[in-house]
Amino acid sequence: MSAVVASSIKQGGPVRLPKVAMGRELILAVATLLVVGVVGALNHDFLGVQNLRFILLNSVVLSLVALGQTLVIAMRGIDLSVAPLLGLAAMVCGLLAQSHGLPLGYAVLLCVAIGLVLGTLNGLLVATLKIPPIVVTLGTYSLYSGLTFLYSDGTQVDSVPPTYAAFGNGHLFDWLPLPTPVLVLLVVLALCWFLLRHTRFGRSILAVGNNDAAAYHAGLPVKWVRVRVYAISGVLACFAGLMFLCYTGSATVTAGTGDHIELQSIAVALVGGTAIAGGRGNLVGTVLGSLFLSVVLTALVFLHVPPIWYSAGEGVMILAAVQSGFGRRSAAQ
Amino acid sequence: MNASIRTASLQKAGRVDAAVVEDVSSNAVTPFNRRRLLPIGGWEAALLLLLVAVIAGFGMKVPGFLDSTSGLLALTENFLPFGLVALGLSLVIFTGGIDLSVGATASLAAVVAAQIWSAWGVNIWLASAIGVLIGGVLGAVNALVIIRLRVEPLIATLATSFIYGSMAVAIAGDSPPSGFPDAFNNLGAGAMAIGASFQLPYQILLFAGLALLFWLLVARSAFGRKLVTVGYSAEAARYSGIRVNRILVTAYVLSGAMASVAGLVLAAYYSAVRPDMGDVLLLTTITMVVLGGVSIFGGEGHLLGVILAVLLLGFLRQGMLIAGFSDMVTTMLTGAILIVSIAVKNLFDSRGLRLGTRIRALFKRSISPGHAS
Prior knowledge:
The complex is a heterodimer. Chain A is an all-alpha fold. Chain A has helices spanning about 5-10, 20-40, 50-75, 80-100, 105-130, 135-150, 160-170, 180-200, 200-210, 210-215, 220-250, 260-270, 285-300, 310-325. In chain A, helix 3 runs antiparallel to helix 13 (about 285-300), helix 9 packs across helix 11 and helix 12 (about 260-270) runs parallel beside helix 14 (about 310-325). By secondary structure, chain B is an all-alpha fold. Chain B starts with a helix and ends with a helix.
């Protein structure tokens, strides 16, 4: 979708049909349905309501992180610190909820606050000190995972209040068969999509990602755009941490970092059609990519593939996705 | 070496215009325009100073850190595997690439070597050699994906790290081999006795030898010159007749091979292998390379800086652990050091805020009226 913006920025011509990006979303949707169909035919349990619900829920946490990562990559940055931020938010909210009965509403606010502060710190370091984003977020990766460790002080979250569990597993509306987290994800996706596609800020993100020098000379506040995008990524990562807490009902020191969710989020964004070289972000593709990953991993369970090959499957998927178009270096490079 | 010879060799290698030579020279591995007594720049001097300060500081404040030279040297056994990976990874980062698969490569190579030893009864040293060879092949696969499939190094090695990691788990099986012969374990935890009370760990010998080799390769060979040229501008390198792909393949192969050496040293240190034992290597190693002054964009940096950064970070970490700080606090400090050091470097860098140049300009301006009158 956002390729429209990118291409119109690049060529300055009339807005064309987003051919390539739509292609990517179509491919992912067809591939997902294909896997569901084939595995469902082999094993009918795969098509059960419970399993499909599990697949959907499983992709939500990664999707939330990857949406922020998509915005950052579209701006030609990278954010490795999402994993410890996820863990930090889950740990802080979980321990407060466990010991002091922190209401869910305050937990959401707390997550946003943590993400905003620490994400902005990432952004300020990248924007003002001119340190490459991979170096900055590698440094803050250590810092933030240290914070989690210090805060938890060796304890872990084993249970959450019922409101949390309901938020992570329940249904918001009785008439709608979609679990609450999926609805939340759709709302966040819509917000991000509107932000990237229909606001001046969104266009600035793509312009900075395309060519930051040109964006600067065109009068865009490049530094300010950078700070805001990293702040958004931080907020989404922390919110994903709260969602993780509510969904799993537990949090340990290695939540997020243990699963290498930072690498997974980058992978999913790239599979979804976001260009690593910046200037092109595909939010719908990111969510579909995350869903596809969840479907494939669950399918592997049903096909009795040993779990050790799951991450190899992820690797092959990344290469296949990158081969089919985006993420390639241009021939000139 | 002097400038004219290098320029001539570049020109001999192919067509090259003066501007390219100028650019390359200002970002070369060793300073090009100045002769120095020691092959170190300001960044390396700062690292060396910090290293001395860290050792002296811990030596005075923390009992047990500097009780004996042997004790101090024995500490290096805990971090030199990181240094081995850093040597190889530096080459890749010099070219402007990155190798995220070093951790998985280290695990996979060590696991394969251990299985060959345990399942077929092959001599452990021969098995290790095969392990290093496998590391090189895995690096070659990385390069192949990057060059032939034209995938960004970050993505390519991210994907292969997933694949290599899975292979390591699969080959390791439920009970990975352990209990290697003592001669092999010495590589990780043994020391050579020199005199009555002096112990020199074999790890230091290995690291010193390989560090010297890599330093010669990067700073004193045509290959090193080409490596940095490719990193500074692949386009310019291609036009000056450098076989860019060949350089890239060599860099990734060496990175893979060094990762597997580190994996084997870890295996010897623990006298066991685990399919996830290389995972800890990646982030710390990148920190070491970047702290060593190598630009993450390629084409800039000195291997000596990387070696100093390995020692600095390693001793700092060990000192803090001995002083009773938790592992996580030291990790946090590592992260903070990474950011602060690069920020400081950027303040003086020609690509950053150019604080050094500005200060010098300030002095010149205040002095020049006197000269003029």
